[in-house]
User: Which sequence fits this backbone?
């Protein structure tokens, strides 16, 4: 990731959008001893800094980071100490194709020909340093970076869990949730759009608003065989651009309307009004 380029954009007064997605071993990043639930881990992460041009309704990439993570490189006793899972379930593999052999570089991604040229590292060996940089960057330029993730609670919880593990090793306490950046969740935005389309236009209410459903609704042709942090993010960006283009011609979404008129000083719960170039 080009840190110098990112800093330059922020110094020049740009607001940057940090798109994020993760693929994991499951859905619970924190262990629960009462239910015998072990700590799930991040296996794949994408982070991309983008600017938004309101005139073209397009996001432009500034710099990106995509990395596979192997939590199983740790010794068994270390995994047991933090109550971590020690395998990837078949049902999870069927979603993203990531196996232990793939992370070790000895087999391709399941359902694909892609193979890692070098074995994946642990979170603390590489990804942690980048997220720590982003954490410090958000404090240096408060409210100038908008964190964007589909179902953001999921990704933030997992990032927070992994960050805590590293900080606890250093006997420090820090939370990625303490970052000085507003969070915008396109999933919540899509839910609001869905309700408006049903209430005011009599359009059919979609029962599912996951990425696959929205991909069909907005005719996104980005090819994808299985889920992946980077490809899912690119699909998410295509969907957001289609939605923003749609609401630009909709009288319900005038700048005076509370659904649309939100600024990067609060959590984007229902709408989006990006800062522009």
Assistant:
């Amino acid at each position: 990731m080009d840190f110098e380029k990112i800093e330059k954009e922020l110094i020049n007064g740009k607001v940057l959008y940090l798109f994020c997605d993760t693929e994991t071993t499951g859905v619970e990043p924190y262990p629960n001893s009462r239910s015998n639930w072990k700590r799930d881990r991040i296996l794949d992460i994408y982070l991309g800094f983008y600017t938004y041009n309101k005139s073209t309704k397009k996001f432009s990439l500034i710099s990106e980071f995509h990395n596979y993570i192997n939590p199983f490189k740790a010794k068994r006793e270390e995994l047991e100490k933090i109550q971590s899972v020690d395998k990837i379930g078949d049902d999870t593999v069927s979603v993203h194709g990531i196996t232990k052999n793939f992370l070790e570089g000895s087999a391709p991604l399941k359902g694909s020909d892609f193979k890692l040229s070098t074995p994946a590292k642990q979170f603390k060996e590489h990804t942690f340093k980048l997220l720590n940089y982003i954490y410090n960057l958000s404090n240096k330029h408060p409210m100038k970076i908008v964190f964007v993730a589909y179902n953001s609670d999921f990704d933030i919880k997992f990032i927070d869990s992994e960050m805590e593990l590293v900080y606890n090793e250093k006997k420090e306490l820090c939370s990625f949730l303490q970052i000085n950046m507003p969070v915008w969740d396109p999933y919540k935005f899509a839910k609001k759009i869905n309700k408006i389309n049903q209430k005011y236009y009599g359009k059919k209410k979609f029962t599912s608003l996951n990425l696959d459903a929205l991909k069909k609704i907005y005719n996104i042709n980005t090819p994808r065989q299985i889920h992946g942090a980077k490809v899912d993010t690119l699909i998410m960006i295509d969907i957001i651009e289609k939605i923003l283009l749609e609401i630009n011609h909709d009288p319900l979404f005038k700048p005076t309307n509370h659904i649309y008129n939100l600024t990067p000083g609060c959590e984007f719960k229902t709408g989006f009004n990006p800062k522009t170039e």
